[in-house]
Write a structure and sequence with these properties.
Oligomer: single chain
Structural class: mainly beta
Number of strands: 37
CATH class of the largest domain: Mainly Beta
Distance between the termini: 53 Å
Number of helices: 4
CATH architecture of the largest domain: 7 Propeller
Largest sheet: 6 strands, antiparallel
Radius of gyration: 23 Å
CATH topology of the largest domain: Methylamine Dehydrogenase, Chain H
Length: 496
């Protein structure tokens, strides 16, 4: 096929980007914001700007769209007292006309947000952050050094009018172990406690006090769990979000019964005293669960910067075995022993980067500070856009945000059924019983059926767009929507 080169001028970024088409790419859009730039772009497969937002502060790395078509972004707060890689200090939401809906500042002398965030089905936002600990505190914790440090923590922020409030948090500081000094806190046998982080597994960075360099985060609503990645530890970790904040600081509670301890970790067993082979040899970024309806759904996918060699990046995916909310992992080695799936990237990237699996099996890759591209299931590059954001994100045509922003003109021949299914939202999910259903307001008629995990109908009626399952056993249920035009789709929910 003849190579087609199109040139698009990006006004604010003052750069010329080119599109290369080699085959049939997926019908959708890419969302990105150049680091330390105020404008977010959504481009189509031809490189045309389909929508943009001119915001009031620079972006650090991450951007995302709500189902309503609003933009959520990590903003660079102008009064940050701390300074490190991908410093942020705030989260913002803008409507489609770039009006600020709300913002939350998390920046002071002792705490600051950085790198990544993810949206939750209930509208809340999970953010990665640092907290300052003095050299004396690190020494007391059993650290073999004399530096101060910024250990990672994670906060959940709920919109509160024009701002936000923290409703849940987890701190790695509460989950340390060390075998360096028996007279200090956290003393124990590291190899016996893989659910904890060895205080001395990672050296405090000279770049500020960045200790573990946590740089990516994702949320699984079905499991109510969080996955995050650590560049310096060369690992990915899973923790339980079903805990209270108090339980998250302990070693018990939540669906797992393990509090805030690691439920699972993968990539570098030496960190917990194992001699098993290291599978993430260097930096790692952008962990995410592959969405339902896509190849390898439920796998955890991540950007393995040196996975295919010292200067060769890969997108890897693993399929950890679970027993309910816990994992079949004995803490002595990587399980699985190696990746379950791999895409060797078209080029090398040593920074952030991002990836996503598409419904048709294609993979979208954003190579940090290089370019973004799409490859088919054979690894052949079929689309390339020569802009260089740290991260970029793919939205398929049927995504409700695309419909909200662009209407039918933006989706072309995309399945109306898929768009309707994606437009229906059930929240909160997981829930303790009460679920609210939105997105059916414009339907002329429909019925709603609830079944349990084996298909048995649950005798319950919807009232005021709400379903109350508080009287039923904990577990997985399906809310089945039947439209008058004959379309049927289901939404899986978790009752805690």
């Amino acid at each position: 096929m003849k190579l087609l080169n199109l040139r698009v001028t990006i006004a604010v970024a003052i750069c010329v980007c080119s599109i290369s088409l080699f085959g049939q790419s997926f019908d959708g859009y890419a969302l990105y914001n150049l680091q330390n730039n105020k404008t977010t772009y959504m481009i189509d497969k031809d490189g045309n700007i389909a929508h943009s937002w001119d915001c009031n502060v620079n972006c650090n790395y991450a951007v995302a769209l709500t189902d309503e078509g609003n933009l959520v972004r990590g903003g660079v707060y102008g009064s940050n007292k701390l300074n490190g890689a991908a410093i942020g200090g705030m989260i913002q939401e803008y409507d489609k006309d770039a009006n600020l809906v709300w913002e939350f500042v998390y920046s002071n002398d002792s705490q600051v947000s950085h790198h990544d965030f993810c949206l939750m089905p209930n509208g809340n936002v999970l953010m990665t952050a640092w907290e300052v600990k003095t050299a004396a505190e690190l020494t007391a914790a059993g650290y073999n050094g004399s530096a101060s440090g910024w250990p990672t923590h994670i906060i959940e922020v709920e919109q509160d009018g024009s701002g936000g409030k923290i409703v849940w948090e987890w701190h790695i500081w509460d989950h340390f172990i060390q075998d360096f000094d028996k007279d200090k806190d956290n003393f124990g046998v590291v190899a016996d406690h893989p659910e904890l982080m060895d205080v001395n597994a990672v050296t405090v960075s000279r770049r500020g006090g960045d200790w573990f360099h946590v740089n990516g985060i994702d949320y699984n609503a079905d499991l109510d769990q969080i996955v995050f990645s650590s560049r310096y530890a060369s690992e990915i970790f899973i923790i339980d979000h079903s805990t209270t904040t108090t339980e998250a600081a302990s070693h018990s509670g939540g669906n797992s019964g393990k509090g805030g301890d690691f439920l699972y970790r993968w990539g570098n067993p030496a960190n917990y005293g194992s001699s098993d082979n290291q599978q993430i040899p260097g930096p790692v970024h952008d962990p995410r669960w592959i969405k339902e309806g896509r190849p390898n759904a439920g796998y955890i996918q991540f950007f393995n910067n040196q996975g295919a060699g010292s200067k060769s990046s890969a997108v890897d995916a693993i399929n950890p075995k679970r027993d309910g909310y816990n994992y079949s992992w004995d803490g002595t080695k990587n399980e699985p022993s190696e990746k379950d799936w791999r895409h060797e990237c078209a080029d090398y990237a040593d920074g952030q980067s991002a990836s996503d699996r598409m419904t048709n099996g294609n993979i979208f890759v954003a190579l940090s500070r290089e370019y973004m591209y799409e490859a088919d299931s054979t690894g052949k590059v079929i689309w390339q856009y020569n802009a260089s954001p740290a991260k970029a994100f793919r939205y398929e045509c049927a995504h409700p945000a695309v419909w909200a922003l662009l209407g039918s003109n933006g989706c072309g021949t995309a399945s109306i059924k898929n768009m309707k299914a994606n437009a229906v939202t059930v929240f909160p999910n997981p829930s303790t019983g009460m679920y609210t259903i939105t997105g059916l307001e414009d339907e002329s008629g429909y019925s709603v059926l609830v079944t349990d995990n084996v298909g048995r109908s649950i005798n319950i009626a919807m009232s005021n767009n709400q379903l109350d399952l508080s009287g039923f056993a904990k577990g997985q249920y399906f809310i089945i929507v039947n439209l008058n035009d004959g379309q049927t789709f289901a939404k899986k929910v978790i009752l805690n």
